[in-house]
Specification:
264 residues, mainly alpha, two-stranded antiparallel sheet, 77% helix, 2% strand, transmembrane helix, TLC-dom, membrane
Length: 264
């Protein structure tokens, strides 16, 4: 079978073979790397400006407790980004001619190394890749440090590697599916956090925010199950673990790519 052939090939994997496969199949230019760095810096500058002139004044105006006021700009920033990125992924999957959501195996149809990435998908990749580059810096130097900050830092690094890897090897079609299925949970998470922060304003507990935050927790749990535990294996892992070998029997870095997806 194709899977047995992939396993047999993997036994012969070594540094030289990996290097040759990388050189033969990866496509990433210096200009694209420079654009990534510029956009990552741009996200950082934009976040600092939004926090200083929008989110922090809003926290002061609402008279949030100091602890919540310190965390609120971070969640507001992430909510705005994830809403925009998820909306764009939704547009690509449901309002264009891309069939990837309804026909997951199609993500690997006509795959070949160094194929041109459609501009609309390239825009999504640039935004996401540079955002996670910014997020690594932000976790260390801008975000409030938490018990899970190290875990988040590792998550951002893996996500950045997966986005860059999938772009370089032209697995961008499946990448759009992954972004769509993951970003919705981040929207609900940050929205719920904001309502937790806004429960106490000017020393008064606001019941509406309390109710909304509880609803948000329930909605997040449901969306996590539906998008990440049901649709993600059904659509993404099915396409990458099985369909990819049917369309491209010698698909490069098959195991590496799927391991990153499983970790994510």
């Amino acid at each position: 079978s194709c899977l047995n052939a992939a396993v047999a090939e993997c036994r012969d994997c070594g540094l030289q073979l990996s290097k040759r496969t990388l050189l033969e199949n990866a496509s990433l230019t210096a200009a694209e790397g420079l654009l990534f760095l510029i956009c990552a810096v741009g996200w950082t500058v934009l976040r600092k400006a939004a926090s200083r002139y929008l989110f922090q004044p809003l926290a002061r105006w609402c008279d949030l407790p100091s602890r919540d006021a310190a965390k609120m700009p971070e969640s507001a920033w992430k909510l705005v980004f994830y809403m925009a990125s998820w909306s764009y992924s939704t547009y690509l999957l449901f309002l264009t001619d891309y069939p990837f959501f309804h026909d997951p195996p199609s993500v690997f149809y006509e795959w070949r190394a160094s194929v041109d990435v459609p501009q609309d998908i390239a825009i999504a990749y640039l935004a996401q890749c540079s955002f996670y580059g910014h997020a690594i810096y932000a976790t260390v130097y801008m975000d409030a440090w938490r018990k899970d900050s190290v875990v988040m830092l590792v998550h951002h690094m893996i996500t950045l590697a997966l986005i860059a890897f999938s772009y370089a090897f032209r697995y961008h079609n499946v990448g759009i599916l992954v972004l769509f299925l993951h970003d919705i949970n981040d929207i609900l998470l940050e929205f719920t956090k904001l309502n937790v922060y806004f429960k106490n304003r000017a020393g008064v507990r606001h019941r509406l925010n309390d109710i909304v935050s509880n609803i948000g927790c329930c909605t997040f749990a449901i969306s996590w199950f539906w998008f990440r535990l049901y649709w993600f294996p059904l659509k993404v892992l099915y396409a990458t673990c099985y369909s990819s070998l049917q369309s491209v029997p010698n698909i490069p870095f098959y195991f590496f790519f799927n391991i990153l997806l499983l970790i994510l």
